[in-house]
Amino acid sequence: MKEKPTPVSVPCHQPAKYKMATLLYIGLLAPVYFIPPALSLMFPAQHFLVAAIAIAIIVPLMVYAIMPLLSRLFAGWLRAPDL
């Protein structure tokens, strides 16, 4: 029976936390600015419902669309060593 090959660990460069925080800030600007007011028009006087739906929309949008896009766009800056 064949032995399983041992995995080789490859060093991975993690971006600085301030760089990721900056991208998160940039990525959240538009969704937080537009989505809750749009939902407030559909559900007036339902503040909790608006917040719950907005979060349910913004979180997957950030995880699956905005942050991957921003990470690709700013890949050079994220990989650049801090001075």
Can you walk me through this structure?
The protein has 83 residues and is mainly alpha-helical. It has one domain (17-79). Helix content is 70%, strand content 0%. It is built from 3 helices and no strands. It has helices at 17-42, 47-73, 75-79. Helix 1 packs antiparallel against helix 2 (47-73).
Structural descriptors:
83 residues, mainly alpha, 70% helix, elongated
How many β-strand runs?
A: 0
- Poorly predicted parts: none
Write down the Rg: 19 Å
> Helical percent range?
55-70%
Report strand %. Answer: under 5%
Name the quaternary structure: single chain
Main sheet characteristics: none
The sequence of SSEs as H and E is HHH
Q: State the end-to-end distance.
A: 51 Å
Mean of pLDDT: 92
Work out the helix count.
3
The tally of domains stands at 1
Shape: elongated
Which structural class matches the secondary elements? mainly alpha
List the helices and strands and how they pair.
Layout: H1 17-42, H2 47-73, H3 75-79
Brief digest:
Helix content is 70%, strand content 0%. It has helices at 17-42, 47-73, 75-79.
